């Protein structure tokens, strides 16, 4: 279990529970607006916080449109290109997507967008299930510093950061802590 | 589960903790799902080299490891006893050093001597996976058996497993005993006293020489192959006698609980340890074992292979 640094002096609060709620609600509106065929949309969360964020966005879409859209889980660990280069072996989990993907729009959902490598792995993982009509990307926080030509379609908050900073996202369901986004010095 | 895998080698289940065994089974869940995709291949071990080094013949285990490696994008070389220099008198250590000089990342070893995988694991940087060593252990077979039980019954703790047949020389039995006990199952070994001596009770299992007493109580029966080709005549009187006393015949199968699983590591001797109708019946999970073997071996290669590269 990662230790929570409650007393970290250099922690800057970025979003509280209400700000997160509003951001995800706005993303839900944008998804509905951008996808006229909303029933063809699948929200595919990257474990573990992406899965929870996808669930919340789906709940907002239900509030707005009274439509239960499909959700899925897309595990990226076995699609990473850096096994052996990381200090820890990533834990693999089963992916779960509604099939076939051919007519569907898959929206990858994650908490923080940084280098873009996780998203690339997620796109590879999705393609191994089939060929979706399109893939979009929704993130709670975009902190910049991309290393690949990837940009998000839906962003909760743009947060300029330096490489020495760390974006900490906490969600009640995945972390047993109150919803919060913080910026910390490493 | 919050656990970190730390072993570069898989030599046996005896040295693994229950948490480690469960972690492998959970990792196998993720890899099993890969087999249902349109593209059944992930890049996890791309660029890595796996050597299948089988000093004893085996088609089924070798093929399963080979396919598991392909699905993880590793490159595979197969070396068998007849094609290796072992027949020319090279020692195991020298063979291993040559494999290392080729920069093999993972070595899957099947060997007739117990302890051969341990010997190489101590000397090589590469991961060593035991694919069966003498009468010692066959850990991936036991892991796929555990996976199959867990998948069908939802748990292992509290179940009563009967392992029937040629226990004395069986590495499959030994690995299964360790794994089942660690995960909280009750284990009864069944067979003639020559093949199932009472000494096994020291491991924490029960021993019975009467199959009809055990079958009605079992949740799982695992039938081991009678290795009749080895002709160990001194251990049992004959095939006919064995079938009469210990074979899982159609009649005998009626003693089983309706939800009891019938397992066999293969290759099966139809009509010897198991009747054809029973092997193909609804309670048989023999082909599930084959499918799950692939997922379990992918998990083991990913975990051990991944660690050895860190």
Explained architecture:
The complex is a heterodimer of chains A (186) and B (310). Mean pLDDT of chain A is 92; it is low at 1-5. In chain A, α1 crosses α2 (49-65). Chain A is 27% helix and 26% strand. Chain A is built from 4 helices and 8 strands. In chain A, α3 links the parallel β4 and β5 (134-142). Chain A has helices at residues 17-34, 49-65, 117-127, 172-175; strands spanning 12-15, 41-45, 70-73, 105-113, 134-142, 154-158, 165-170, 180-185. Chain A is of the alpha/beta class and 186 residues long. The longest helix of chain A is centred in the N-terminal third of the chain and has 18 residues, at 17-34. Chain B is of the alpha/beta class and 310 residues long. Chain B is built from 11 helices and 9 strands. The chains are: A alpha/beta (186), B alpha/beta (310). Chain A binds chain B through residues 1, 75, 77-81, 83-84, 86-89, 91-96, 124-125, 127-130, and chain B through 2, 4-5, 27, 29-34, 37-46, 72, 299, 302-303, 306-307, 309-310.
Order of helices and strands of chain A: EHEHEEHEEEHE
| Fraction in helix of chain A | 25-40%
Helix content of chain B: 25-40%
Strand order across the largest sheet of chain A: 3-2-4-5-6
Q: Tell me the greatest interface.
A: A-B, 25 and 28 residues
Question: What overall form of chain B do the CA principal axes indicate?
Answer: globular
Assign an overall shape of chain A: globular
**Structural class by SSE content of chain A:** alpha/beta
Determine the N-to-C terminus distance of chain A. 18 Å
Radius of gyration of chain A: 16 Å
């Amino acid at each position: 279990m990662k230790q929570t640094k409650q007393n970290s002096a250099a922690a800057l609060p970025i979003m509280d529970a209400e700000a997160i709620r509003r951001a995800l609600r706005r993303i839900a509106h944008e998804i509905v607006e951008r996808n006229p065929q909303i029933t063809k949309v699948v929200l595919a969360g990257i474990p573990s916080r992406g899965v929870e964020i996808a669930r919340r966005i789906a709940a907002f879409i239900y509030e707005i449109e009274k439509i239960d859209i499909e959700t899925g889980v897309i595990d990226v660990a076995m699609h990473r290109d850096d096994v052996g280069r990381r200090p820890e072996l990533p834990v693999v989990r089963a992916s779960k997507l509604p099939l076939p993907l051919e007519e569907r729009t898959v929206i990858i959902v994650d908490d923080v967008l940084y280098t873009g490598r996780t998203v690339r792995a997620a796109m590879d993982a999705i393609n191994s299930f089939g060929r979706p009509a399109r893939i979009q990307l929704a993130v709670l926080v975009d902190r910049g510093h991309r290393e690949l030509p990837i940009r998000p379609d839906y962003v909760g908050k743009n947060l300029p950061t330096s490489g020495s900073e760390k974006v900490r996202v906490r969600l009640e369901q995945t972390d047993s802590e109150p919803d919060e986004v913080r910026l910390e010095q490493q | 589960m919050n656990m970190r895998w730390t072993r570069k080698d898989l030599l046996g289940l005896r040295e693994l903790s229950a948490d480690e065994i469960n972690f492998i089974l959970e990792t196998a869940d993720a890899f099993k799902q890969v087999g249902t995709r349109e593209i059944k291949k992930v890049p996890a071990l791309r660029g890595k080299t796996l050597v299948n080094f089988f000093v004893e013949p085996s088609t089924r285990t070798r093929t399963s490891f080979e396919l598991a490696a392909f699905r993880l994008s590793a490159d595979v070389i197969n070396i068998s006893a007849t094609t290796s220099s072992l027949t020319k008198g090279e020692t195991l250590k020298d063979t291993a050093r040559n494999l290392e000089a080729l920069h093999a990342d993972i070595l899957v070893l099947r060997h007739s001597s117990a302890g051969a995988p341990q010997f190489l694991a101590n000397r090589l940087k590469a991961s060593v996976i035991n694919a069966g060593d003498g009468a010692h252990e066959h850990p991936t077979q036991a892991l796929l058996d555990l996976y199959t039980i867990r998948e069908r019954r939802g748990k292992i703790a509290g179940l009563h497993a009967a392992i029937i047949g040629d226990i004395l020389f069986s590495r499959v039995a030994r690995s299964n005993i360790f794994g089942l006990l660690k995960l909280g199952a009750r284990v009864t070994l069944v067979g003639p006293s020559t093949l199932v001596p009472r000494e096994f009770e020291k491991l924490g299992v029960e021993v019975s020489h009467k199959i009809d007493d055990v079958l009605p109580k079992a949740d799982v029966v695992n039938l081991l192959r009678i290795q009749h080709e080895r002709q160990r005549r001194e251990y049992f009187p004959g095939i006919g006698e064995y079938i009469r006393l210990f074979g899982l015949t159609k009649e005998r199968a009626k003693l089983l609980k309706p939800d009891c699983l019938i397992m066999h590591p293969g290759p099966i001797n139809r009509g010897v340890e198991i009747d054809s109708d029973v092997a193909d019946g609804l309670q048989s999970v023999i082909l599930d074992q084959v499918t799950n073997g692939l997922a379990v071996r992918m998990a083991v290669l990913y975990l051990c292979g991944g660690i050895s590269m860190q």
